[in-house]
Amino acid sequence: MLYDRGLDFALKQTRDAKMAKLDESLLTGLPPFSLLDRSQIREILDAAVSRRYEEGTPIFNEGHGADRFFLLLDGYLRVVRTTPGGDQIIVLHISPGQLFGIAPALQRDTYPASAIPAAESIALSWPVHLWQDFTARYPGFATESYKTLGQRLGQIQETLTEMATQAVEKRVASALLRMVNQSGRKTEAGIEIAFPVTRQNISDMTGTTLHTVSRLLSAWQREGIVESTRKHVTVIDPHALVLLSEALP
């Protein structure tokens, strides 16, 4: 499903807002908070800190102490894991309206991955000691949070399985399709991935080399499947990309 740019106009207004100005409509309708009344949402907002994060500056790093959990209001995040060999792999992306850094849901006191903004981003955060309070007091918060966690673990497993078993062309095509499905916005040329993405990023997502990604994207551009410029990728022929992702080894 393409990302709905109208998720909530109020999210965009938070770019210059102070916490005192944040309205309950920020959280109304988001799955972890959809069952709450405005007074409960007000309590949650009053306990939060709002902060802007620059593109490429980690919000937290893998292995560091998990002292806060977060909700992304605006922007996109890359979730990055480090392999035993020291390589960094982008295992998934986080879209606006989603919780992240929810180490307590995994019963961990450290973050299992790094969260790095793919574009300038704004997030709310709360002290980690409030996690148990939120799950106990607010209807739907626990069930939706653990549902999100299960979906992400499934996505990570799918990515790692692709890297271990699929040909590189299929891996790159699948990675592009995931980003399009998560954040794609229609343009005159096709469907543009809504956040900056470089060929190195795609390399880090698919466990292949920058040279290989560049070769594939250049070939697909000549064939009219994608258009790739600096930090921007537009899929011109989604059906062709789907066929590439499903091709036999």
Strand arrangement within the widest β-sheet reads 1-7-2-5
Say what oligomer this is. single chain
Which regions contain 5 or more consecutive residues with pLDDT less than 50?
A: 1-20
Which superfamily, in CATH terms, is the homologous superfamily of the largest domain?
A: Jelly Rolls
CATH architecture tag of the largest domain: Sandwich
Residues in helices, as a percent range: 25-40%
Q: Report on the biggest sheet.
A: 4 strands, antiparallel
CATH fold title of the largest domain: Jelly Rolls
Rg estimate, integer Å? 19 Å
* Overall tally of structural domains: 2
Distance between the termini: 27 Å
Question: Which CATH class of the largest domain?
Answer: Mainly Beta
Estimate the mean pLDDT confidence.
88
Shape: globular
Strand count: 11
Order of helices and strands: HHEEEEEEEHHHEEHHEEH
Please explain how this structure is put together:
The chain is α+β, with helices and mostly antiparallel strands and 249 residues long. The protein has 2 domains: 9-155, Jelly Rolls; 166-246, Orthogonal Bundle (Arc Repressor Mutant, subunit A). It is 37% helix and 20% strand. The protein has 8 helices and 11 strands. The chain has helices at residues 9-13, 38-46, 130-137, 141-165, 168-183, 199-206, 210-222, 238-246; strands spanning 49-53, 68-74, 77-82, 88-94, 99-100, 114-117, 121-127, 185-186, 191-192, 226-229, 232-235. The chain has a 4-stranded antiparallel β-sheet with strand order 1-7-2-5, with no helix packed on it. The protein has a 4-stranded antiparallel β-sheet with strand order 8-9-11-10. A hairpin with a 2-residue loop joins β10 and β11 (232-235). α5 (168-183) crosses α6 and α5 (168-183) crosses α8. The longest helix has 25 residues, at 141-165. It is globular. The model is unreliable at 1-20 (pLDDT under 50).
